[in-house]
Structure formats: C-alpha cells, structure tokens
Design brief:
Layout lengths: L1 H60 L5 H11 L7 H16 L8 H5 L2 H20 L4 H5 L2 H17 L8 H5 L2 H20 L4 H4 L3 H16 L8 H5 L2 H15 L1 H4 L15 E2 L14 E2 L8 E8 L5 E9 L6 E6 L5 E10 L8 E9 L14 E6 L11 E4 L11 E4 L10 H13 L4 E6 L4 H14 L2 E5 L15 H12 L5 E4 L4 E5 L5 H10 L9 E4 L1 E3 L15 H4 L2 E3 L10 E4 L4 E4 L4 E4 L5 E3 L5 E5 L16 E3 L7 H18 L7
Parallel strand pairs: 3-9, 10-11, 10-13, 11-12, 15-21, 16-22
Antiparallel strand pairs: 1-6, 2-3, 3-4, 4-7, 5-6, 5-8, 6-7, 8-9, 13-18, 14-22, 15-18, 17-23, 19-20
Length: about 675
C-alpha cells in the first residue's frame, strides 16, 4: 500500500518538473523573439542616425558645423546605446568642451592665448555667457518676490543652461519619463549648482579661510560630480586617482573659475591679466556729488563721490550709504585715463557714528594693492561700484575719481563743513549774519549740502557762490528715510565727503552747524588762534585736531540791553555758566590731511600717530544759538547762566557787512530780498 503511494508521488513530481522546464524554455524563447524584434526595429531607425552622426563629426572637424548643431542632433536623433564606446567617449568630450564652455574650445583659442587683448575680450565674453543665467539679472531681487516670474526664471535657467548639458547622459531619458525623479533632479541641480553662486554672499570671504573654502569646494564637487556619475566610465575614473583628480580640476575650472577669477580681479591682489580687461567705458558720463544706486543688492546701496587715497592704504575711497551690518558684497571697476580697465576687490567699511540704525554712511575701499596701479594713476578715472551678485550687467553708477593731494598756497586756509539742509531750511536773515561773521573770523570757504531749502536760502547761497566763490553747494537727495532708517539725512556721509573734498585746498576744516559760531577769546581770527595753539606745542608734534567746548546761548533768553547792533550775536549774550564737557556737543577743527573719519562732535579716526586735544574755554568757546530747549518746554531758561559779550567786538564791522550784502541781494533777488 505504502509502495503504491510512493510511486504515485514520484510520478507527480516528475510531471511538475517537466512542466517547469517547459515554461522556462518558452519564457526564454518569447524573450528572445522580443529582443530580436526590438533590435531590428531600432537598427532600422538608427541606421541613418549613425551615418548622420559620422557626417556631423567630420563636418565639425572641418569647422563647418557648430557644437550647438551637434548637441541638438545628439539630443533629438541619437541613442547613446548604439554609438561605439570610443566614439561615445570622444563625443562626450566634445560636448563638454563645446557646450559647457563653448568659447574656450574654439579652434584658435591657443593662438588667442598669446594675444592679451583678444584673450581679455574672449574671457569677458565667456564671463557674460556663463554668469548671465545665474547672477546677472538686474531685477533678480525683485523677481524673487514674484513667484510666477521666479518660477519662469528658474525653469529657463534649468532648461537652457543646467539640464541640457546633462541630457546626453545615458539614463537621463528614463528619468524624464518619471515626473517624481525628474522633479527631484531639477530641484537638486537648482539647489546645488545655481544657489551657491547667486546667494552665497560671503563667498569671497570664504576664499581667505582655507578650511571653509575647502569645505565649499568639496560641497560643490559632491553636488556637481553627481550628474557625471551616469557617465559610463565615471566609476573606472574613480579607481584612477590621476584621472579623477584631472576630472575634478576640470570641473572646478569650468564652474568655479568664471566666478572666482574671470570677473573679479585676482582676489588676493596678484597682478594678472584676469583683472585687466578691455571693457569700454559706458556711454553715460561719470558724475560727482550725485547719489547713484548700486544695482542688484539685497539692501539699499548708494554711492556719492570717489577720492584718491594715498595715506592709510593705496585705494580709491568711495563715499556711500548702505546696510549698517551685513552689507552686500561689491567690487569696483575702474576705467583709468590711460585706457586700462581694472576690476578689483572692494571693502565696505561702516562709519562708526550710525546710532545703530538699519543704514549707515560707509566707505567703499577699492583696494589697489599688488595691482601695479598707483593711486596717482586713478586721478580723473571713472569708477563704478558693482554688486557681486550682479557682476555681468552694465554698472548702474559712474563716479569721477577726485585728487586729494594738497595744492600749493593753502597755508592758513580755513574751510567750514555744514550738515545737509533739510525741512526746507529758511532762516535766510540769520544765515547772512552767520556767513559774514565766519568770514570776519577768517573762514574762506563753505561746503554745504542741499536736501531741501527755501527759495530765499537758495538765492542767498547762489549769490555767495556766484559772486564770491565762497560756497560749494551740492545736491543731497539720498533715497534712504531719514531718522527711521539713517541718521539725519545721512549727515555722516556728508561729513566724510566734505573731509576728502576739502583735503586738497584746506589746511584746517571746521565742522559746525549753522546755529553755532566758534569764537576766539583773545585773537581776532580763527587762523590766528590755530597758529597760536599749534605753536604752543612746538617743537613737539602738533595735534591734528582741536576740540572746543559748547555753551548754549538760548534765543529764548531776553535781549541784551547793551547790544551795539540789531544782530542775533549782539542781542543774545546770556549763556550757560558751565559749558558742556569735551565730546558732548563739542565741535572741532581738524587738519584734513591727518584725518580718516569724522564724527559730529569729535574725530573718530586720525592717521597713526596723530592726536586731538581739547582747547581751554578761556581761549575759545563754541557759541550755540539754540532756538528751543533741548527737550521742549521752557525749563532750559532756568539753568544757571551768565552774560558773555565776547561777540560784541565784531558787531560793528559785522553790521556793515550784513547791510552791504542785503543791498546786493536786493538786486540779485528783488522778489525775495526787497530793498
């Protein structure tokens, strides 16, 4: 019974084995038929394609077809599966050379390398064509706020400049049929290739930190190499350290170099032809003393004037205004009078007195060290400040570089700096008295900045400018909100501009407001006071700046019954008994050639070794004719006070001068100053 059952089980096992073998044979037969059929169909389809490919390769060798034609043909009509391995390798190299860097592999590139002019032009062309898709859109920052336009920009960039070079990889076409994988690929490429070069604001500073730079390069390599992992021989290259190193270096050169050296002048300052270009000066004329924007920055950034700096550093010093902390990275492009053009690094230096507001006055230092260009070579040049994130676009600002070397015959010259006029300044009657008293005291020139002023004041200052040449009146339309964003119309930028503007023509510079007058107690003029103060320090080193204490002469106090004339300085003689301490509302006189950065009440930075000292109140005092109490109300008139008639010694002569000027103004501005 048991023996019969055993035979039955063996028989069924044999039947199942036979059936499995039959199915296995049938499967391979069907698979073989399918593969042969597909092969015949594909061979029929690609036969002409292979011939066309060989024809294009031959044409390309004879320079009769553009790389873009080969790329287009390759993408649309050819399957990499049916290209011989040697031809595929050559084709990939051709695409790498001619698609990714279309200008470097031109047939005459090597001859161009020996011609510095043509090479410079070629590199600039490469910069424009490589940088443009990533970081030269002038309104890129505004586009970022518009999802629709941003999406369109990213799609255009991805399709035209990022994805296309990788479309020849063997499995790209399979990825394109998988929306999820394709989306992931696009996002990866967008994040890791586009972003590092458009939004890494401190990239240039990373170059100075070997550890962080190495990390950045490694990150870039990891994310750039990934698409190349589809290349059939990538894995074999990885086993060959020499070939892998060469591949990495090639990729770094193609992707990092255009950003690191093709546009920015050798960041370490080394002289090389990358920094000297033949880019022509833009058609518009350069300007001085006009606020001009720096396009492409994340925050407001404006520049006003540019000066030669020979003392602390070899540079062009640009006066500007931008973010107090975390300012955008910029560089300078300078068109020299000898027709050379240099593009070089810039350092944004915040002016110390900024009240911790969002925006501040700044210096933009265009550093000339190791460029072979001397500061004197930049006199009369044109300079533009350009955002690193907007490097390839035409500059949005052009400034004339002004010389700061002292001219002969300026001994004793005393000039005055005044902060920008605003709130439609209209105290024209007092302004005549103020200017004439300063002239009596030895002031020979005034630097003034006009945000807004009354028609009377405008006519008055134009009279002094045209009739005597006493006033330099400059426009001051800084598009940053005063008080809330920047301190009082950006007055500290005006002080710095005044410092460097006066450097060539003034021995002394007095920084005061139009309601303040510096009165010497013993001498008749301020130059005499300053010469006496300087002589008192000889033969030791003479101080570079003298600070003067401030005393309020409130206009709210009663008039002096002994006033010799109907003048404010004659009638208002009551002042605080104890003047303010130094650096609290004090003002100063400084030698411009010894100063680097000015403040409101004292100098922030002088040249190394230069000093500033306070002047005793019995030698000179700053008379501050204040209209109102500091904090409102009338409490200020109750402070201890004393009568000080020092200004009366100028009243008689001052009255004659004011009367004479009013007669002249009646002729110059009859509707405003009637006779």
């Amino acid at each position: 019974m048991m023996r019969g059952r055993s035979r039955s089980s063996i028989s069924r096992s044999k039947e199942r084995a036979n059936m499995s073998f039959f199915i296995f044979i049938m499967f391979f037969a069907v698979f073989g038929v399918i593969m042969v059929t597909e092969f015949l169909l594909l061979e029929k389809h690609n036969g002409p394609a292979r011939s066309r490919y060989e024809e294009l390769q031959g044409s390309m060798r004879q320079n009769r077809v553009l790389p873009s034609d080969l790329k287009k043909y390759f993408l649309n009509d050819l399957r990499t599966t049916f290209i011989p391995a040697s031809s595929l390798s050559a084709l990939k190299q051709t695409i790498t050379n001619n698609v990714l860097t279309p200008f470097i592999s031109t047939s005459n590139y090597w001859s161009i390398r020996r011609d510095s002019v043509r090479l410079s032009t070629l590199k600039y062309t490469i910069s424009n064509n490589v940088l443009t898709p990533f970081m030269s859109s002038s309104n890129y920052c505004s586009i970022k706020q518009d999802p629709v336009r941003l999406t369109a920009l990213k799609q255009t960039t991805l399709n035209n400049n990022v994805l296309i070079p990788f479309m020849w990889t063997s499995n790209y076409w399979s990825i394109t049929r998988d929306p999820v994988r394709l989306s992931a690929l696009k996002q990866t490429i967008s994040n890791n290739i586009l972003t590092p070069f458009t939004s890494t604001s401190n990239y240039w500073w990373l170059r100075r930190d070997p550890v962080r730079l190495s990390a950045l390069k490694q990150t870039t390599l990891n994310n750039v190499l990934t698409p190349f992992m589809w290349i059939s021989n990538y894995w074999s290259i990885r086993q060959d350290p020499i070939s892998l190193s060469a591949l990495k270096q090639k990729i770094l050169n193609y992707l990092l170099s255009p950003f690191a050296s093709a546009l920015i002048y050798s960041w370490d300052g080394k002289a090389s032809h990358e920094g000297v270009t033949e880019k022509q000066l833009p058609a518009q004329a350069p300007q001085d003393a006009v606020w001009q924007p720096v396009a492409g920055t994340r925050f407001k950034f404006y520049v006003y004037s540019a000066y030669v700096e020979r003392r602390t550093v070899a540079a062009v010093r640009v006066i500007g205004a931008t973010k107090t902390r975390g300012a955008d990275s910029v560089f300078c492009r300078i068109w020299l009078p000898d027709n050379r053009t240099i593009t070089l690094r810039a350092k944004v230096q915040t002016i110390r007195e900024n009240w911790n507001l969002k925006y501040s006055a700044v210096y933009v230092l265009c550093l000339l060290s190791k460029t072979g260009v001397k500061p004197k070579d930049t006199i009369g040049a044109t300079v533009a400040v350009i955002a690193t994130a907007d490097a390839a676009t035409p500059p949005s600002n052009l400034l004339t570089v002004i010389d700061t070397k002292p001219k002969p015959g300026i001994e004793g010259a005393l000039h005055v700096c005044v902060k920008p006029f605003h709130f439609h300044y209209g105290r024209s009657e007092w302004l005549i008295e103020w200017m004439e008293l300063n002239r009596l005291l030895g002031v020979s020139h005034f630097y003034m900045y006009n945000k807004t002023m009354s028609e009377q004041t405008t006519c008055l200052l134009n009279h002094y400018r045209e009739h005597y040449g006493l006033v330099t009146l400059l426009p001051w339309n800084l598009p940053i909100i005063s008080v809330t964003e920047i301190r009082t119309e950006g007055q500290f930028a005006a002080f710095q501009d005044c410092l460097y503007r006066s450097m060539s023509s003034a021995k002394w510079l007095l920084v005061v407001d139009t309601d303040e007058v510096l009165i010497p107690r013993r001498e008749r003029t301020l130059p005499a006071l300053l010469e006496g103060l300087s002589a008192s320090y000889a033969p030791a080193k003479v101080p570079a700046a003298f600070l003067f204490r401030n005393a309020f002469f409130y206009v709210l106090w009663e008039d002096d019954p002994q006033a010799p004339a109907k003048l404010l300085t004659a009638c208002k003689t009551r002042r605080w008994t104890t003047p303010h301490v130094l650096k609290n509302r004090s003002k100063y006189v400084v030698r411009p050639r010894h100063a680097v950065e000015l403040g409101n009440h004292f100098t922030w930075e002088l040249l190394p070794g230069a000093t500033s000292v306070g002047v005793p109140k019995d030698l000179a005092l700053l008379h501050h004719y204040r209209l109102n109490c500091e904090f409102g109300g009338m409490s200020c008139v109750k402070v201890p006070s004393t009568v000080d008639r020092t200004a009366h010694q100028w009243s008689e002569e001052l009255m004659k001068r004011v009367t004479a000027e009013k007669k002249l103004l009646a002729k110059a501005c009859p509707k405003i100053f009637p006779a």
